[in-house]
Design brief:
The complex is a heterodimer of chains A (168) and B (1089).
Chain A (H helix, E strand, L loop, with lengths): L7 E6 L3 H10 L8 E6 L7 H9 L4 E6 L10 H18 L7 E5 L5 H18 L12 H8 L7 H11 L1
Helix pairs in contact in A: 1-4
Chain B lengths: L8 E5 L3 H11 L4 E5 L14 E2 L4 E2 H14 L3 E4 L2 E9 L2 E8 L14 H5 L3 E3 L8 E3 L1 E2 L11 E2 L5 H4 L5 H5 L12 E7 L1 E4 L4 E2 L16 E3 H8 L20 E8 L16 H15 L4 E6 L9 H10 L4 E4 L5 E7 L2 H22 L4 H12 L3 E11 L4 E7 L1 E6 L1 E2 L2 H10 L24 E3 L9 H17 L27 E6 L11 H9 L4 E7 L5 H13 L4 E6 L2 H14 L7 E5 L1 H5 L6 H19 L9 E3 L3 E5 L3 H12 L3 E5 L21 H13 L4 E4 L3 E8 L2 E8 L11 H6 L1 H7 L1 E7 L1 E4 L3 E3 L13 E3 H9 L3 H5 L2 E8 L13 H15 L4 E6 L9 H9 L3 E4 L7 E5 L2 E7 L6 E6 L1 E6 L1 E3 L3 H7 L26 E3 L9 H19 L3 E3 L5 E3 L9 H5 L5 E3 L16 E3 L9 H5 ...
Parallel strand pairs in B: 1-2, 1-13, 2-5, 13-24, 15-22, 16-17, 16-22, 17-18, 25-26, 25-27, 27-28, 30-31, 30-36, 31-32, 36-47, 38-45, 39-40, 39-45, 40-41
Antiparallel strand pairs in B: 3-4, 6-7, 7-12, 8-9, 10-11, 14-23, 19-20, 20-21, 29-48, 33-34, 34-35, 37-46, 42-43, 43-44, 49-52, 50-51
Helix pairs in contact in B: 1-2, 1-12, 6-7, 7-8, 12-27, 13-17, 14-15, 17-30, 18-19, 18-27, 24-25
Classes of the chains: A alpha/beta (168), B alpha/beta (1089).
């Protein structure tokens, strides 16, 4: 495919949205194959570092979905999730991640149609943004190491510090 | 029949939510259960509902875990497509003849892939969708059905009706179709029988006044429920059925087939329709906020927990209109759209029509016909015309609606009535199964118990409560045979794989052609073989088939695999099966990981085979990355102390105590008053006309003479320690029942200072706790209460009845004022019992003095269920009902020794003054708001002060905190029969724990690394189950505990949600089976695509 195909990490709670995804399957509702699902007991289980890790490892988007507020299998888990995600989303968008890369939704296990719809929306919104540009892990190559330790580089504080330490 | 020969099995007739709950309670407490269901799968009406009131929870979401539990339960045998033909024998030893229709599909072979239904040419009305869509002649009733096995509807199948076709047999990849299947007659041996056949909805067809037959736009509430449902015929989009246009105005007509002896013989109230109409109106408005929703009602009956506030929100927040009027009839008006309008509206309609066509394309012929009819009548719009009396203007108003929903009531099916008559079970005049106030789940025939709507119209929580009660009563009768017929899973030894290098086996499933037709299964297998730690790969045609399971288990042993991955369908349905397979090969079941390449792969990417194959490879790689980090997890055993504490010695507490004591458990009742009985001590008669003092007296004497029950009166709880299975409750009490005769505890306790000298402290160890602390009657502060002895509360009136007070017979005129302290701003809930209580009290007064003038001043009369018949009787006997509203409350005055009540008559709209000799204030039921007790057992109170149950629908007698249960008025106001049923249900829940003696903790739970923990306590505040705590030194040990002040997780209480883990700032918590490392490994490895 010539067009850019986004890679989207999707984390679903076992009781509601994972069930909705199963129902979408049973009902044969089609959606694009760009998502990779990770099943967790509750959206409250998802910690901010998983979102960061997804971007860090090169995901173009992330989608987290749980039970509707009030429907949580664990009573209150999705409320914590909602609060945490909103904070993190604002923070990441402040730091350059575009709107439309991070998605949260609440889909009950009876909403197969909604699952397929949201999946399509998520994939399309990330597709429009193109590949992710921020928070991506870069491998250090030899050049990086050299420049890091290059004494002559006036901007290199690390090298300076090491040298000063050695001198002392 | 002697007690020794009772049969330890129970038959549950009906697989709705009531039957399901009863079956689970019994099967989990040592009895074998046969569940006989007439349709191909269980679930009943609840499975058809979109949402449940008052919280608008998704019905299927909360129900499906229960369905799956029943389907997989080793001690529940599902007998579907079956009905009871005859019953022989007596209590403890019945023989039941069951007729089971042929399914024509071999349940052991069917893999529910749906290939047969796809190829089946015959379309049939889909009853799950209330006939609004089509299914095939081979079908499962709904996608989440249990058992998830297809069935052939032989009445419609072309192979059976015409001898042709045979497509399904040709298509079925598993060879499951069996046209030679035969009907069967079974004989089941059981000790008790629970009847839970549920209800039918009233059919308005044939009644011209409802216009139901004439217009598609008049629908029943169950049809509308399906329209609202995302899994329904319109995928949740509400359109006007006649032309699929967007509706603007919807009306609900209440009491269709209920409270009606003219068009039908249903004099009773159906109890649930007011709430479901509110729910449907709210959901419809959420779909489209511009929608105008109007509910036409006689009395709004929102008498349950959380109902009144839902009603208030519907009015105030959602803008739903409520009009008090029983609409007489409706008819269709057709309107020709002129050209100009046609351009505007027509274009919108066209779009809608296209959408509509698209959405119903796969659901068949009928819809196709419908759209043909539409195109012919394109320029004609249908409206439903309602003429109603508007109270405010005093005029008859004509209004047009796009859709009219008939809020149809509940009826008992003729088959159920016939069966009841055949086996000699008494029915009420309305055709429900007869029970008594003090034994609300026992029928008139020994050994037969009942739950759900067949006992009287009711909602889901009340059905679930009765299911618990019925299970309790059915089980108690068979206590001698407990655990005699149940099966147990054999204990298996696990191979210790700790320290072994991971050896992963990957099994990729074809699922016939379900997966293999899209995904290149062999390529996925070969790819898996290249992944690190993968030792073995294979494909299976059907991984779930018995021979494939055996094969997998052998390979795991042979290749010494210590991790297993199956790439197939959903872990939600199949994980337990494969875990079992792994376990049979001696490997810990938590070393299994499932990859969903069917529901999340081949089925949803059918036009992208390459991408779907790539996705399958990625998902397998992610699973391998996780599985190498998996560890064997232990499920620890926890002993359950076999003693019980019941807090509260009223009717509920005593019933719960007696239920468990009868099953052989030692029960301690803690009562703060000096005697047992609670509020019932002052009550006269139940709505079922049972004498309460007599019933209470019997119960109290059974309690005090019961060898397994110890009563602590005048007792107070000082401290509670521990958790499920191991509570320690310290009480101060002056005596227990063994010494009661010798002890003057009542005199001691009446003097507060003196009490301390007589009290002694006692610590009780117990495994479960039942909270039955009750509630009390509000002392009114209005209507001159306390200023004149002729003004009494409802309970004070009952005392006068009990004492046969001459003032009652002497009174010439009596007035009742309803909603005193209820349904007001400061106390918004409805107290549920006062309407029925006032009506029956008025009837008693009439019996004492037929010439007495009696007036009941009310806001809505809420005589739900068959109590409606009392209301009818009261009106027939000349009791006058005058409605008032909150803005114009009655005024009470005393002048010249006369007691006058002024009220604005709702018909005359003029003030009238009634002179009364007796004024009864139907005062609210108020909870004790016992925060101390709530703290002790870590259970929540709601804003009104009632205890909050674990789940408003499906766990009304349980707390979210394990091992603590709830019943009676402490939960919500309720009459005696409902309190008793709930007490039995709470006891039944407790029995589920007690009968196991030990419980297993879950493997996938949180764990603290105390060396990293900072003791901040965030985990304590986020956990809804009180599983984390901070370690405290035991003073008696005289030395500090290691890691004092750091968190620890009680593995018994942890449910494994992981909220604490993701909230821990120090990273000290891990969730076994879903730990950070494992999930991050999946994220990391996901990205190589």
């Amino acid at each position: 495919m010539s067009e850019f195909e986004p890679k989207i990490i999707t984390i679903l709670c076992n009781w509601c949205t994972y069930g909705a995804a199963d129902l979408a399957g049973v009902s044969r509702f089609q959606y694009p194959p760009n998502i990779r699902v990770i099943r967790v007991p509750c959206s409250g289980r998802v910690s901010p570092k998983m979102i960061l890790s997804a971007f860090h490892n090169g995901a173009d988007g992330i989608w987290i979905s749980g039970c509707h507020p009030g429907d949580c299998h664990y009573i209150t888990g999705n409320y914590y999730a909602r609060r945490k995600f909103m904070l993190l989303k604002n923070f990441l968008e402040y730091n350059g991640i575009e709107q439309g890369r991070i998605h949260f939704s609440w889909i009950s296990s009876a909403e197969g149609v909604k699952f397929a719809e949201v999946a399509r929306d998520v994939v399309e919104s990330v597709r429009k943004l193109g590949p992710a540009k921020y928070f991506i892990k870069k491998e250090l190559d030899d050049n990086d190491l050299c420049s890091c330790l290059n004494k002559s580089n006036p901007d290199n504080n690390l090298a300076k510090n090491i040298l000063e330490e050695q001198a002392a | 029949m002697s007690n020794n020969s009772v049969t330890g099995a129970v038959l549950v007739a009906g697989g709705g939510i009531g039957g399901i709950q009863a079956a689970l309670d019994l099967a989990n407490s040592g009895y074998y259960v046969y569940m006989v269901e007439k349709s191909p799968s269980i679930g009943g009406v609840m499975a058809q509902l979109d949402k449940t009131f008052p919280t608008n929870d998704c019905s299927m979401c909360i129900m499906s875990p229960k369905l799956v539990e029943v389907g997989r339960h080793i001690n529940i045998e599902l007998i579907t497509l079956a009905e009871i033909k005859d019953v022989r024998g007596g209590q403890g030893s019945f023989e039941v003849d069951v007729f089971q229709k042929a399914r024509y599909v071999d349940m052991t072979k069917c893999i529910a892939c749906g290939a047969c239904a796809e190829k089946c040419p015959k379309k049939v009305d889909d009853l799950y969708n209330a006939g609004l869509a089509k299914r095939k002649a081979i079908y499962v009733p709904y996608p989440q059905a249990v058992p998830l096995k297809y069935a052939i509807d032989a009445d419609n199948c072309i192979r059976f009706t015409k001898g042709k076709c045979g497509n399904c047999e040709k298509t079925c990849p598993a060879g499951a179709i069996n046209y030679n299947d035969k009907d069967k007659n079974l004989t089941l041996k059981v000790g008790s029988i629970i009847l839970a056949p549920g209800f039918n909805t009233y059919n308005p067809s044939g009644k011209a006044i409802y216009n139901y037959d004439a217009s598609k736009d008049v629908v029943t509430s169950i049809e509308f429920e399906r329209y609202l449902s995302a899994s329904g015929p319109n995928q949740g989009h509400v359109t006007r059925p006649s032309d699929n246009a967007h509706p603007h105005k919807i009306a609900w007509l209440q009491c269709v087939g209920s409270r009606d002896i003219n068009t039908c013989g249903n004099g009773y109230c159906s109890s649930v329709c007011c709430m479901y109409a509110i729910k449907q109106a709210i959901i419809a408005k959420e779909h489209d906020p511009s929608l105008e929703c109007t509910v036409f009602y006689m009395d709004m009956r929102t008498h349950g927990k959380g109902f009144e506030s839902c009603y208030n929100e519907a009015k105030d927040k959602h803008g739903i209109k409520f009009v008090r009027c029983k609409v007489h009839s409706l008819f269709t008006q057709e309107e020709k759209i002129n050209n100009q309008e046609n351009l505007d509206i027509g274009s919108v309609e066209d779009k809608d029509a296209v959408e509509g066509k698209k959405s119903v394309e796969d659901s068949g012929e009928q819809s196709a016909k419908k759209s043909k009819k539409e195109s012919k009548n394109k320029n004609i719009k249908q409206y439903q015309v309602l003429n109603y009396f508007d109270e405010e203007s005093g005029k008859v108003v004509t209004d047009l609606y796009d859709i009219v929903v008939l809020s149809v009531g509940m009826e008992i099916s003729p088959e159920t009535k016939a069966l009841a008559e055949k086996i000699g079970i008494g029915l009420t005049d309305s055709g429900f199964i007869k029970t008594s106030s003090f034994d609300p789940v026992a029928t008139t025939k020994d050994g037969f118990y009942v739950c759900g709507a067949v006992q009287g119209t009711k909602d889901i929580p009340q059905s679930v409560v009765e299911a618990g009660g019925a299970a309790m009563r059915a089980g108690t009768a068979l206590a001698a045979a407990r655990n005699t017929l149940t099966k147990t899973t054999p204990e298996r030894t696990e191979i210790d794989i700790k320290g072994e290098r991971p050896r992963v086996g990957v099994f990729v499933c074809h699922c016939g052609s379900n997966i293999a037709s899209i995904i290149d299964v062999a390529a996925v297998r070969d790819y898996a073989a290249t992944l690190p730690y993968v030792e073995y790969v294979a494909t299976n045609m059907y991984s779930c088939s018995q021979d494939a399971q055996d094969g997998i288990a052998n390979i795991v042993k042979e290749k010494q695999l210590n991790r297993m991955i199956v790439a197939a369908c959903s872990p939600r349905t199949h994980e337990p099966l494969f875990q079992e397979t792994l376990l049979s090969a001696g490997i810990n079941k938590y070393l299994f990981e499932m990859v969903n390449i069917r529901n999340h792969g081949s089925w949803v990417h059918k036009d992208y085979p390459l991408e779907a194959t790539q996705k399958a490879k990625d998902l397998v790689r992610m699973a391998v990355a996780k599985s190498v980090q998996l560890e064997p997890l232990a499920e620890a055993d926890l002993n359950i102390d076999q003693n019980v504490v019941v807090i509260g010695g009223g009717i509920s507490g005593m019933t719960a105590a007696k239920s468990l004591a009868d099953q052989g458990y030692k029960v301690n009742i803690i009562e703060q008053n000096t005697s047992l009985g609670g509020q019932a001590k002052n009550l006269y008669q139940t709505a079922g006309r049972a004498m309460i003092q007599e019933g209470l007296g019997n119960l109290t004497s059974q309690i005090t003479s019961h060898e397994n029950i110890t009563v602590f009166t005048g007792a107070e709880i000082e401290d509670v320690e521990g958790f499920v299975g191991n509570f320690k409750t310290t009480i101060s009490s002056c005596c227990d029942s063994s010494a009661a005769s010798k002890c003057g505890c009542s005199s001691l306790n009446s003097d507060k200072d003196g009490a301390t000298s007589g009290t002694n402290s006692k610590t009780i160890e117990h495994g479960v706790t039942i909270i039955a602390t009750g509630a009390s009657e509000l002392k009114p502060t209005e209507y001159m209460y306390g200023k004149d002895k002729r003004i009494v509360t409802g309970i004070e009136l009952d005392k006068m009845f009990i004492n046969n007070d001459p003032a009652l017979t002497a009174a010439k005129s009596a007035v009742f004022i309803q909603c005193v302290g209820s349904r007001e701003l400061q106390r918004p809930y409805c107290s549920r019992i006062c309407c029925s209580h006032s009506v029956i009290s008025a009837l008693h007064l009439k019996e004492k003095n037929p010439d007495m003038n009696i007036f009941i001043l009310y806001r809505d009369i809420r005589t739900y269920g068959e109590k409606e018949l009392l209301y009818k009787e009261a009106r027939e006997k000349g009791i006058i009902f005058i409605r008032y509203d909150l803005a114009n409350k009655p005024e009470v005055s005393v002048g010249d020794g006369k007691l006058n009540i002024k009220v604005i008559d709702h018909v005359l709209k003029m003030p009238i003054v009634i002179e009364a000799d007796l004024l009864t204030l139907a005062s609210a039921v108020v909870p004790y708001k016992d925060e101390k007790l709530a703290q002790f057992f870590k259970v929540p109170l709601n804003e009104d002060g009632f205890f909050v149950e674990a789940h408003v629908k499906l766990a009304p007698s349980d707390f979210a905190t394990d091992g603590v249960f709830l019943c009676g008025l402490a939960h919500y106001p309720k009459p005696i029969d409902e309190s008793i049923a709930q007490a039995q249900a709470a006891a039944s829940s407790a029995l589920r724990l007690l009968s196991k003696k030990t419980i297993k903790t879950q493997g996938t739970i949180a764990e603290v690394n105390q060396t990293i923990c900072s003791g901040c306590g965030v985990c304590l505040s986020v956990c809804p189950y009180n599983a984390p705590s901070l370690r405290v030194s035991n003073q008696n040990e005289g030395r500090p505990k290691p890691h004092e002040g750091k968190a620890e997780i009680n593995p018994v209480l942890c449910k494994g949600c992981g909220a604490c883990v993701s909230s821990c700032r120090s990273g000290a918590l891990k969730l076994k089976g879903f730990d950070d490392g494992q999930l991050l490994a999946m994220i990391e490895s996901a990205m190589n695509f």
